[in-house]
Design brief:
The protein is mainly alpha-helical and 320 residues long. The chain is globular and about 65 Å long. Helix content is 75%, strand content 2%. The chain has a three-stranded mixed β-sheet. It is a multi-pass membrane protein.
Length: 320
């Protein structure tokens, strides 16, 4: 692609070989469909089953919605580029991709922090749980999560695309990745972006500390529970959340905090997959398979009786 007459960027994906590009597209398509199915299923189950209308599942529904949007920002574009054997992305598309990617990633960290606080209150302050995590407080928390993400995305996008670029507009990644784009910046012109990145990183670090402190208190409380069954029940809801947090933040932290290398490698691409593609695909599996209430709700939703009831309900709605 001739970029001299265009204002966009060239995304250097996984391979120059068209057959391998098609293979990558098919693999990404399968992963994307799995992520869509899993997250839509969780959103549907929690919405339909009244037994799951509690703060924990309310936040889980929003995590699934974030995951759904997060994987849709990068993967479909990458699939299209691979199938068309054309890595070009316009400036407008790249701006939107950076904004939504940063906004949704920041919101994901925020919702995971809120979820850890919810578990802390439920286990360590059970008598005050309904008062602290009342419906109004939960709604405000979710609004704050989405607004914080949007603000973070706006800050990064505004600063990132005000930086003058030098050299070829080639990004060695399958999406418009901020650390890779900073390599294109002219010398000493990206101090503002570093300041914004430092602010975002410190905010993410505060979130991580909050999560760690919540779990230290949770596990110290759990170990005092006399019954093994009680401990197992608590661990079954807390450990999946802890795994998701650790996996997402460690992979993203490695990618954003390490010094950028001039020669891109397969490791760069692998770590970007670890925090862009894997978490949204694994989250539904982790949360549904380890959770008895989710499994029971899934069986209920998929049962013939429930399905026929829903069918009759929708028929009655359309008649009205």
């Amino acid at each position: 692609v001739n970029l001299t007459s265009k204002s966009g960027f060239l995304l250097m994906g996984f391979s120059d070989d068209h057959k391998l590009q098609v293979l990558h597209a098919l693999l990404f398509l399968v992963i994307y469909l799995l992520a869509l199915t899993g997250n839509l299923l969780i959103i549907t189950i929690i919405t339909l089953d009244h037994r799951l209308h509690s703060p924990m599942y309310y936040f889980l529904k929003h995590l699934s919605l974030l995951d759904l949007c997060f994987i849709s920002v990068t993967v479909p574009q990458s699939i299209a580029n691979s199938l068309m054997d054309n890595g070009y992305i316009s400036l407008g598309q790249c701006i939107l991709q950076v904004f939504f990617f940063i906004a949704l990633a920041s919101s994901e960290v925020a919702i995971l922090t809120v979820m850890s606080y919810d578990r802390y209150v439920a286990i360590c302050q059970p008598l005050q749980y309904e008062t602290i995590m009342n419906p109004s407080a939960c709604r405000r928390a979710v609004i704050a999560v989405w607004m914080a993400g949007a603000l973070s995305g706006l800050m990064h996008t505004t600063v990132n695309f005000s930086i003058p670029l030098c050299g070829e507009r080639v990004i060695h990644q399958f999406f418009c990745d901020v650390p890779q784009m900073l390599k294109l910046a002219c010398s000493y012109e990206f101090m503002n972006e570093i300041a914004v990145a430092a602010f975002t990183t410190s905010t993410a670090f505060i979130c991580l500390i909050s999560i760690v402190l919540s779990y230290i208190r949770i596990f110290s409380m759990v170990l005092r529970i006399p019954s093994a069954e009680g401990r197992t029940k608590v661990f079954s809801t807390c450990l999946p959340h802890l795994f998701v947090v650790t996996f997402f933040l460690s992979a993203a932290g490695f990618e954003f905090l390490r010094p950028p290398s001039d020669s891109p490698s397969a490791v760069d691409l692998m770590f970007s997959i670890f925090y862009t593609v894997i978490p949204p695909t694994l989250n539904p599996v982790i949360y549904s398979l380890r959770n008895e209430a989710m499994k029971a709700a899934l069986k209920k939703v998929l049962s013939k009786d429930e399905f026929s009831q829903r069918k009759m309900y929708f028929k009655a709605m359309f008649k009205l």
